[in-house]
Write a structure and sequence with these properties.
It is a single chain. With about 350 residues, this protein is an alpha/beta fold. The chain is about 45% helix and about 15% strand. The protein contains 13 helices and ten strands. It has helices at about 10-15, 15-25, 40-45, 55-75, 80-85, 110-120, 135-140, 155-175, 185-200, 205-215, 225-245, 280-290, 320-340; strands at about 50-55, 75-80, 95-100, 125-130, 140-145, 220-225, 245-250, 270-275, 295-300, 310-315. It has a five-stranded parallel sheet, sandwiched between helices. A five-stranded parallel sheet has the order 7-6-8-9-10, sandwiched between helices. Helix 11 (about 225-245) links the parallel strand 6 (about 220-225) and strand 7. Helix 3 packs across helix 8 (about 155-175) and helix 4 runs antiparallel to helix 11 (about 225-245). It is globular. It starts with 7 loop residues before the first helix and ends in an 18-residue tail after the last helix. Bound molecules: 5-amino-5-deoxy-1-O-phosphono-D-mannitol. Its main location: cytoplasm. Homodimer. It is an enzyme of class 2 (transferase). It catalyses: D-fructose 6-phosphate + L-glutamine = D-glucosamine 6-phosphate + L-glutamate.
């Protein structure tokens, strides 16, 4: 089923614009409004705090989800790593709602939390690519990400689909709460799909970045601030799991508190900036690492770009930039793995769904 593609991962990266358009059509009613289960709407409204639980890439989508729900729907959200939640359980609010994000719906760490919170009598909603999966069956409600089967171990289209659904959910909740809303996620996601296509059409450019920066390096840092920081975490996870390059995502401001000690001559540092309010500060961080010998690779959004940026991504709504800025990071990881002769679709030591705790 790979068709003409050499790897599932590349096929799945390329499918993202179609997945986003599919999500738009599945979540749109005949009046061009958001279509969502009335019980889910009510449950979101009733909750006084949302706890997002997930692992790996789905956790990174959950970090973005927190920002979306808090900023758009004005509701407090905490995002937790599934495998840690039961050890470091926060004090729960009076009416919590648990949202589980899982591509497979089978992740044992997340299921452990689901079983525990159901025993406490709390409500659960699963956002998954596999309705009928364990996490979907055992939760009260399910939202489908409609990404189609994801075969490559490295998650790509499931991640962007999860964030698209979270944006739709956030706006639906805001509207149901009577908040004034000038952000139309269905329209804005259509712009995202086009922007993704522009980037997947520029594979030569991403291949060149991978070759120039990552063919021989032992490590790589991704730096960003605000929502871009969360995308950096995802970019680093992608790179390490398929290319085995030691990669870390950092908040730009944290560098000087330790990590900058690791920068040496030629260390690749990939910067991501899509948010106006952090443009100057992240560029300042880039200068700091360059002064210590780093090779800088800046990925910026239209409107924020400067002359020597390595890649400029098309402009999309500020809430949705992670769906677009992650695409070059996925492709750079893919080509880095190829150049290093790694098994892209089946990296060593990893399974597609992790069914042990
Ligand atoms: O199926 P899930 O979304 O629950 O899986 C969670 C993680 O195991 C998964 O995202 C993993 O981190 C991927 N290999 C990342 O590409």
């Amino acid at each position: 089923e790979k068709g003409t593609y050499p790897h599932f991962m590349l096929k799945e990266i390329d499918e993202q614009p179609f997945v986003i358009r599919n999500i738009i059509s599945k979540y749109k009613d005949e009046n061009e409004d958001i279509k969502l289960d009335e019980d889910i709407r009510q449950t979101m409204l009733d909750a006084d705090r949302i706890y997002i639980i997930a692992a790996g890439t789905s956790y990174h989508a959950g970090l973005v989800g927190k920002q979306l729900i808090e900023r758009i729907a004005n509701k407090p959200v905490e995002t937790h790593i599934a495998s840690e939640f039961l050890y470091n359980m926060p004090l729960l609010s009076e009416k919590p709602l648990f949202i589980f994000i899982s591509q497979s719906g089978e992740t044992a760490d997340s299921r452990g939390v689901l079983v525990a919170v159901k025993e406490l009598g709390h409500k659960a909603l699963t956002i998954t690519n596999v309705p009928g999966s364990t996490l979907s069956r055992e939760a009260d409600y399910t939202l489908h990400t409609y990404a189609g089967p994801e075969i490559a171990v490295a998650s790509t289209k499931a991640y962007t689909a999860q964030m698209a659904v979270l944006a739709i959910l956030a706006v639906d909740t805001a509207k149901a709460a009577g908040l004034k809303m000038d952000f139309n996620p269905l329209q804005e996601l259509a712009i995202v799909a086009n922007a993704m296509e522009t980037l997947t059409d520029k594979k030569d450019k991403m291949e060149k970045i991978a070759r120039d920066y990552l063919s021989v390096s032992r490590n790589c840092f991704f730096i960003g601030r605000a929502i871009d920081y969360y995308v950096c975490l995802e970019g680093a996870l992608k790179l390490k799991e398929i290319s085995y390059i030691q990669a870390e995502g950092f908040a730009g401001g944290e560098l000087k508190h330790g990590t900058i000690a690791l920068i040496e001559e030629g260390t690749p540092v990939i910067g991501v900036v899509t948010q106006h309010h952090v443009n100057l500060s992240i560029r300042g961080n880039m200068k700091e690492v360059v002064a210590r010998g780093a090779s800088p690779c800046m990925i910026s959004m239209e409107g924020l770009a400067e002359g020597d940026d390595a890649l400029v991504i098309p402009h999309v709504h500020e809430y949705l930039t992670p769906l677009v800025s992650v695409v070059p990071l996925q492709l750079i990881s893919y080509y880095a793995a190829l150049h290093r002769n790694c098994d892209v679709d089946k990296p060593r030591n990893l399974a597609k769904s992790v069914t042990v705790e």
